[in-house]
Design a protein that fits this description.
Blueprint: H1 4-16, H2 26-53, H3 58-61, H4 64-84, H5 109-125, H6 132-142, E1 150-155, E2 161-167, H7 171-194, H8 215-231, H9 242-251
Antiparallel strand pairs: 1-2
């Protein structure tokens, strides 16, 4: 039995037993961005590419376009259907234009990050032959062996160097680089969307925060005004203001 379905099932149970769902803020989204990057890296480097790389047709298995398009569809198909039918709406399901089809929706990070990470993983591991020249060019541009690949020389039968080749990275190493890249991108998105909460002090002067009036305070103020108006309404047939009552109380 695979260990990943129990992992996601355990996470779902943990979410269901939470007493409340915390509101979205930098304090919740920034830590979750790292967890999202780790889980998304496994999806985009192992699960989705396997459908193409292990395909029975050699033309499909060796096509980088099939790899990129499949990653785009498989990684975003669920979100597309949820947004299309508004499955998370509190007013019930209804058809609505997904955010990806709205102006600027193509720039959504979840949309373009899927083919990007899958392509980076295929480039570093040389899972398809079409990526080998680009990987070799990348390593040769650096000029030495790095974490992105090892530059090796091909020795001809005469003993001379016939050319160079690049040894592909291991699956685990390439997946780690993709996970770090995803974590950085998602953390950047969380900071851009929510900003850094200025709840600390700057030097010796504390930052001022806007006071929010609660509904209970409004009700208490309304009741206080009603009682005050009732007390100061009529006295001996004359309308008395609050100031007159205070003067009468002091002089009486």
């Amino acid at each position: 039995m695979s260990r990943y379905p129990p992992l996601f099932a355990t996470a779902q149970v943990f979410i269901n037993i939470l007493p409340i769902v915390p509101s979205m803020s930098i304090h919740t989204e920034l830590p979750l961005s790292f967890f999202d990057g780790l889980t998304r890296a496994f999806l985009l480097t192992t699960s989705n590419p396997g459908f193409i790389i292990k395909h029975s047709s050699p033309q499909v298995a060796s096509s980088p376009w099939a790899l990129m398009v499949s990653s785009l569809i498989l990684a975003n198909g669920g979100f597309f259907l949820v947004n299309l039918f508004q499955m998370l709406s509190p007013y019930g399901w209804h058809v609505k234009t997904p955010a990806e089809f709205l102006p600027g929706g193509w720039s959504t990070m979840d949309l373009w990050v899927a083919p990007l990470i899958t392509g980076v993983h295929a480039l570093l591991t040389q899972s398809q032959t079409a990526w080998i020249p680009y990987h070799r060019y990348l390593v040769e541009s650096v000029g030495s062996s790095t974490i992105f690949g090892t530059l090796e020389y091909v020795i001809a039968e005469t003993g001379d160097k016939a050319g160079t080749t690049v040894k592909p990275m291991g699956e685990a190493e390439a997946r780690s680089i993709c996970a770090l890249l995803l974590c950085a991108l998602f953390a950047f998105r969380a900071i851009i969307n929510f900003g850094i909460d200025q709840t600390h002090t700057t030097g010796t002067q504390p930052l001022k925060r806007k006071r929010v009036i609660r509904s209970s305070e409004r009700v208490a103020a309304f009741i206080h005004n009603v009682i005050l108006r009732f007390v100061t309404t009529e006295h001996d047939g004359q309308h008395l203001s609050r100031e007159i009552l205070e003067v009468s109380h002091k002089t009486g």
